[in-house]
Amino acid sequence: MKRLLLILILTFSFQSWTKADDIRDFEIEGMSVGDSLLDYFSEKEINKKINSKSTYWYANNAYVSILIKSKNFKTYEEIGALFQPNDNKFILQSIEGTFNYGSKINECYKKQNIITADLKKIFSNTTEFITYTRKYTADKTGKSTSKYNRFTFSNGSAISVVCYDMDKDFIDPNDQLYLAISSEKYMMWLDKNS
Q: What are phi and psi of 111, to 5 degrees?
């Protein structure tokens, strides 16, 4: 029953995307790429999250992704909010909704396939679709992997559905599914630095 409810929530939340013609029209828990994180949190709260152990810093501190958890989230278990650390307006360059799967990577892949199939129906003529698997760069042992299904828009912005298959000995061994909405600027940087 819980799985059916989740599928219905995802399906209905994607239906509004069919009318969207700009990546900023897409939302995860009410937040969109291009929004200022200051619209949702105080600067003090943001800085506290930046200094948290769960914060992920990208190469050369080009971007930072903070973890946000809230009982008020309707669809996702947690949110990753990505921005440039030198941006005093904290403009969101990517927003990521997360589902946790413990050590059940096959459940993650099933959900990834469902979401990807729904997105293909919506974006079939307006995006380029690619899928690939690679080692998860944060795991220096090379034992963790990530499987990407990416829809890239003509301006370079993208929506990605990613399953992270984490090694049991990694810092966070929890397998996760991310639905990420990312700006053209961030995707260009990511493609050059991956």
A: -65, -40
